[in-house]
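Lecture notes, unit on protein representations.

Consider one protein chain, 71 amino acids long.
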Amino acid sequence: MGSHLAILRKQAVSIVDAFDMHDFVIDSTLGSWDGNVYERMYEKALTSPLNQKDVPDAYYKYLRPLMKANL
């Protein structure tokens, strides 16, 4: 199977492009047509719901009690 993957890898981009799916549909920061991986990753991080607050609610709910506990 490993040898088949090596052969397939060379053709992977062409195979995926054959489906003619637009970047909007795929919603991939790594697989966009223009190759601006780092810019897209940064933009995605800025708009992520996880990054809308300085400290996420999960910190106060899960991590802070653990850090304050006398283990």
